[in-house]
Design a protein that fits this description.
The chain is α/β, with parallel strands linked by helices. It has 32 helices and 22 strands. Bound molecules: adenosine-5'-diphosphate (ADP) and zinc ion (ZN). The site of zinc ion (ZN) has 8 residues, from helix 19 and helix 20.
Length: 717
């Protein structure tokens, strides 16, 4: 460890200082500042951000600012090691405890935790299998208990880890320190599971970073297949490279054949193809030798091609999650891309068929088991393929047979095996003595999963029929409230579809002038002309007077144009900026972060020396913008006001120690250091406000709060 650079005691406690000093970042990413301030004010939290959204900083930064050690639960040893190494390189005292350590080393690290040597300790979830380990942690002052990849505790997530289920109990045992859960899985059911199993108390919930502004989402209600092919043809002609998702292998083959007839360069991909053919198809597409991939949802996990310009759903997918994940494979390079779902209600039948096939009821499972009992040979084996079995069993849904056998295998009643000399699998009874009526099935769980799958299908159907901005609908579904209309989906375009080229009204002229002067304020005038310094989103945020941390940190709130178009709304402004660009009034640099600036023509229009004709976004767009009520930011104190005043803290501490001495009790019985920290940061001025602070109950407030509030009051003067 690079010891000595920073010791646990010498860490800066002011979050904005720490951000720059320890991490070298000048600003927060979307959502980070809200989470950090919620954690620094002592709240539990559930944070959902996409991969790469910057979750680790959300607990590493508070870890530095809080007294005591932050425990981080992380499921993968390799990742854990990377994180600890990175922290140590920054000079932050961090370590990890996992199965690669022997018992002595573990004990040693726990001892050093107790002595306050570390700010962050990463712990593998399976450590909590040991009661002794959990017990030992009780003696450590844990400031924050951060659980990374928290979806691992949901059985409905894709990565269930039973060890995670123990964390709720472990938290109880170690006295419920402040707890924060982090995940990239935004589905409502996974979030509900996390809240339930961890027992988070009135947590700060934050979902952010899921919008994809460069994607234009469209849902086309298509009467039949020919209509769908018409759309496919047009989209390929316009956008060239992309993916077409189908629900069944049969449909993949059919669509692929059609593309071939059209002479489109393409590959087909589905799970029914053999391994070689699949990886060949994947390679051809990834290496850009083919333009279009036609695939079932089996295609995707490993595809990494950033210039996918369109994603077409030839049929309705089974859930909003699947839809957005697949659509999200478009435009990874940040360039504008289109996603189109070709909806036909008849296709919902295919999805219902899948649900039935994936969720055989207890009755079907027992029927299959009885069949295996009847047909097994002396070795308790049934050497028949699923297809052969079903020819005799005649289940209505052949998929259900495979699912039923999986259920039986999961419960240890059967296993699949390779039939010698053939490339086929048979089924073997593992507990042949167990009678059909005695097999144990979790009927409630089976029914629950069936119900959830049906709910998901219902949601994606609702989505297809909704008339709201597609992006807003999806973000709302994931829990990201108050998003502004995207301005580019079919619904947004429709509400602006009366747009025609005309001269500005007086009001519009004013808006354009204000918008252009905003651009000017955020650019630099040089001898060579205008030079951009910010992107479109930032400029719009500034114009609408956003209170985001970004704005304030960059002091954009001090510009004379700040909030000039407060009443116009970002949805309208996004459309307007697009039009200003196509009318040649503003321009953007090319590159990863396009910087926007004025053109000469733009300068003249701004100065009122020239009139413009634009395709005006309809005023309906402004009406469509929801006010940013109850946004995450409004819920928590502003971070900039949450610096750490060491002098105030010391005064509060002295008072606390004095009271403890007088009453002959240990200091923490009055208030813990952590609670005093929250007093320092939040500066409550009333008993009610103090009651909202972690560690201040009714009793303590009545008994002790007054002198502390008095210190805070006089400190401000
Ligand atoms: P996640 O855990 O959400 O997938 P990470 O925590 O690994 O994301 O962060 C993703 C990347 O973003 C990292 O390279 C990290 O250094 C960077 N990052 C995090 N916060 C900031 C910030 N405030 N400014 C700039 N880069 C940041
Ligand atoms: Zn929209």
């Amino acid at each position: 460890m690079v010891a000595g650079v920073t010791t646990a005691a010498s860490v800066t406690k002011d979050p904005l200082d720490a951000l720059e000093k320890h991490f070298g970042f000048r600003k927060f990413l979307d959502g980070q500042s809200q989470v950090v301030s919620a954690l620094l004010s002592g709240r539990d939290a559930l944070v959902v951000m996409p991969t790469g959204g910057g979750k680790s900083l959300c607990y590493q930064l508070p870890a530095l600012c809080l007294e005591g050690v932050t425990v981080v639960i992380s499921p993968l040893i390799a990742l854990m090691k990377d994180q600890v190494d990175a922290l140590q390189r920054k000079g932050i005292p961090a370590t990890m405890i996992n199965s690669t350590l022997d018992l002595n080393d573990q004990r040693d690290r726990i001892r050093r935790m107790k002595e306050g040597e570390f700010k962050l300790v990463y712990i593998a979830p399976e450590r909590f299998r040991s009661g002794v380990f959990t017990e030992a942690l009780r003696e450590v002052e844990i400031a924050l208990f951060a659980i990374d990849e928290a979806h691992c505790l949901s059985q409905w997530g894709h990565d269930f880890r039973p060890d995670y289920l123990r964390l709720g109990q472990a938290l109880d045992k170690i006295g419920r320190p402040q707890t924060a859960a982090f995940t990239a899985t935004a589905t409502p059911e996974v979030r509900a599971d996390i809240l339930k199993h961890l027992g988070l108390r009135e947590p700060f919930e934050c979902v952010s970073g899921f919008s994809r502004p460069n994607l234009s989402l469209t849902i086309t209600h298509a009467g039949g297949h020919e209509e769908k092919y018409g759309r496919v043809r047009d989209i390929i002609a316009e956008h060239k490279t992309g993916i077409i998702y189908c629900s069944t292998r049969k449909r993949v083959d059919e669509v692929a054949l059609r593309l071939k007839e059209w002479g489109v360069s393409s590959v087909a991909y589905h799970a029914g193809m053999d391994e070689n053919a699949r990886s060949r198809a994947q390679d051809l597409f990834i290496s850009k030798k083919r333009d279009v991939a036609v695939a079932t949802n089996a295609f995707g996990m490993g595809i990494d091609r950033s210039d996918v310009r369109f994603v077409i759903h030839f049929e309705l997918p089974g859930s909003v999650e699947a839809y957005y994940q697949e659509a999200g494979r478009a435009g990874r390079d940040g360039e504008p891309s289109v996603c189109e779902l070709l909806f036909n209600f008849a296709d919902t039948r295919t999805q219902e068929f899948f649900i039935e096939g994936n969720n055989p009821g207890a009755k079907t499972i027992r029927e299959v088991y009885q069949y295996l009992q009847n047909k097994s040979d002396a070795q308790f084996e049934v050497k028949k393929t699923l297809k052969e079995i079903n020819e005799e069993l005649e289940l209505k849904n052949e998929m259900a047979l495979g699912s039923a056998i999986s259920q039986l295998a999961r419960r240890g009643y059967v296993e699949r095996f390779d039939i010698a000399g053939q490339r086929l699998k048979g089924t073997r009874l593992l507990q042949p003595k167990v009678k059909t009526r005695d097999i144990e099935l979790d009927v409630t769980a089976l029914e629950e999963k069936d119900r959830r799958d049906r709910d998901k299908l219902k949601s994606v159907i609702d989505f297809s029929y909704s008339n709201d901005c597609r992006q807003v609908w999806i973000l709302g579904y994931f829990g990201e409230a108050d998003a502004a209309p995207c301005g580019s989906c079919d619904m947004c375009r429709k509400s602006g579809n009366a747009r025609d080229l005309r001269e500005a009204t007086e009001a519009e002229t004013l808006i354009v002038k204000k918008a252009l002067s905003g651009v000017a304020r955020m650019s630099q005038k040089t001898a060579a002309g205008w030079e951009g310094r910010f992107g479109r989103a930032k400029i719009i945020q500034m114009l609408v007077g956003s209170r985001s941390q970004d704005m304030i940190a960059a002091r954009l709130d001090e510009l004379s144009t700040y909030g000039l178009l407060k009443d116009t709304g970002t949805g309208y402004l996004n459309l307007l900026f697009r039009e200003l660009a196509s009318a040649g009034l503003i321009q953007a640099t090319v590159g990863e972060y396009p910087l926007v600036t004025l053109t000469d023509r733009g300068s003249r229009v701004m100065a009122g020396k020239e009139e413009v004709k634009l395709r005006w976004p309809s005023a309906a767009m402004t009406a469509g913008v929801k006010p940013a009520s109850r946004s995450a930011a409004a819920d928590t104190p502003v971070l900039a006001e949450m610096g750490f005043d060491q002098r105030l803290f010391d005064q509060l501490k002295a008072k606390r120690n004095e009271i403890a001495r007088n009453e002959g009790v240990p200091a923490f019985v009055v208030f813990s250091n952590a609670t005093l920290e929250f007093f320092t940061r939040l500066r409550p001025s009333t008993v009610e406000a103090a009651l909202r602070i972690r560690g201040v109950g009714e009793n303590k407030a009545a008994k002790y709060a007054a002198p502390f509030l008095e210190i805070i009051r006089s400190h401000g003067k």
